[in-house]
Amino acid sequence: MRNFKYLNVIKKALDEECPGVVSCADIVVLSGRDGVAMLGGPHFEVKTGRRDTKKHTTDKDADHALLAHDAGVHAFLDTMAKLNINTPQAVALIGSHTVGRVHCVHLVSRLYPTVDATLNSSYAEYLKMRCPSPHPDPKAVKYARNDPGTPMKFDNNYYRNVMHMKGLLKLDNALYLDSRTKPYVQKMAEDNNYFFEQFVEAMSILTEHYVLTGDEGEIRKHCQWVN
After folding, report:
1. pLDDT block averages, 10 residues each, the chain of length 227
2. 97 is an annotated ligand-binding site residue
3. Which pLDDT score is estimated for 74?
4. E strand intervals along 68-117
5. Are 174 and 73 in contact (CB under 8 A)?
6. What's the rounded Cα separation, in Å, for the pair 103 and 50?
7. CA-CA to 204 of 20 to 30 Å: which in 36, 44, 86, 150?
8. Phi, psi angles (nearest 5°) of residue 225
9. Measuring CA to CA, which residue among 25, 38, 45, 27 is closest to residue 200?
10. What is the DSSP letter of 67?
11. Does 98 count as an annotated binding residue?
12. Angle, nearest 10°, between helix axes 4-17 and 24-38?
């Protein structure tokens, strides 16, 4: 995971009030939950009491647990199924792409040397302005917003973008082109409440996956390091 500096600010404030009680794992889940709500998304309850792993992990470990940026629908649904997340719930989770950004290093394969046929042509030209080189510096902060229309609002505009072939990642547009997921993309584009409902159900499952409790872990003093 990245941006641990924010987690450690929260961790420091919590430990000043109740030292050694709240884990970094709980902070991650609660921060994600509250971030969604602060951007206009649904507020939902989550369980607490997680423990932090005693194993030191790296960025590579986190990347290994995530889908590749160029993954297709089959790999996506298969990964979600292993977490007991069904198809509409999975499509709702991807709706979190309504906020955030994608770095150019993960976009250029859809733009150069030829534009991905599933990309909206005018949108592709916009992306080329955001990512003008086929070989971007991986350390440079060059990116495109997931949803240029409402970039800081957690809403269903992502699905409307996808229906116009304006998804940033390969998977985004593929969700509308695949018969297994297309009906849910359409329904969530039409019904924001349905999107929120399925998103909350999926998050309830995801936030309780592979949780350490009791003596299985520890309460870290610093979120980047084991005690």
Report:
1. 79 96 96 95 96 88 82 96 97 95 93 96 96 91 91 96 95 97 98 98 95 94 91
2. yes
3. 97
4. 101-103
5. yes
6. 31
7. 150
8. -130, 150
9. 45
10. P
11. yes
12. 110
Contact between 159 and 188 under an 8 Å Cβ cutoff? The reply is yes
Q: Which residues pair with 147 in a beta bridge?
A: none
Is the distance from CB of 207 to CB of 201 less than 8 angstroms?
A: no
pLDDT at 56: 86
In whole angstroms, what is the distance from residue 187 CA to residue 183 CA? 6
Strand partners, 145: 101
CA distance 52 to 219: 6
Residue with tokens 């399925």, as numbered in its chain? 198
Whether the Cβ atoms of residue 136 and residue 142 lie closer than 8 Å to each other: yes
Q: Is 116 exposed, middle or buried (0-12, 13-18, 19+ CB in 10 A)?
A: middle
Is 118 assigned to a binding site? no
Cα gap 67→85, rounded to integer Å: 15
pTM beyond 0.90: yes
Q: How many CA atoms lie within 13 A of 38 on its CB side?
A: 6
155 is in an annotated binding site: yes
Q: Is 191 annotated as a binding residue?
A: no
Closest CA to 99 of 60, 51, 56, 151: 151
Torsion angle (degrees, nearest 10) of CA 140, 144, 145, 149? 150
